[in-house]
Protein: DUF3145 domain-containing protein
Amino acid sequence: MSTRGVVYVHSSPSAVCPHVEWAISGTLGTRVDLKWTAQPAAPGQLRAECTWSAPAGTGAKLASGLKAWPMLRFEVTEEPSTGVDGERFCYVPGLGLWRGRTSANGDIVVGEDQLRTLVATCRAAEQLAHRLDELLASSWDEALEPFRHAGDGAPVTWLHRVG
Structure:
């Protein structure tokens, strides 16, 4: 079952860029040569993005490979496919990796069991609000938003998994 997604490397030191390309190449099974551009939100850092096509579950493998470099800021998305929810992964230094399911239009999906656990364990409205913010990646979105806007109009590399 094939799906598509996007890797957004929002910021990377130039010395790490070849390692990022190597990690993506290893996961997709094809040589990756990203178009790196300056990241205005972090002077001295570079950014790149690529669209990929590969089997369902590839988004998790890409995120796992990229989190080996804790100085990166990145997002990986995977579109829903038959019988498989979409996913979004966000990594921010200091916050770590966040993973969530997504709907067909890209909204974060919070499952019934997650909501039941919140209701059963949260004793105060403030605690409930904090846990909902975590489930919805609010801190990650806040940290990444300046990097997303700084990348508007940047070139995109299109990739397809071999075999």
Remarks:
- The chain has one domain: 2-158.
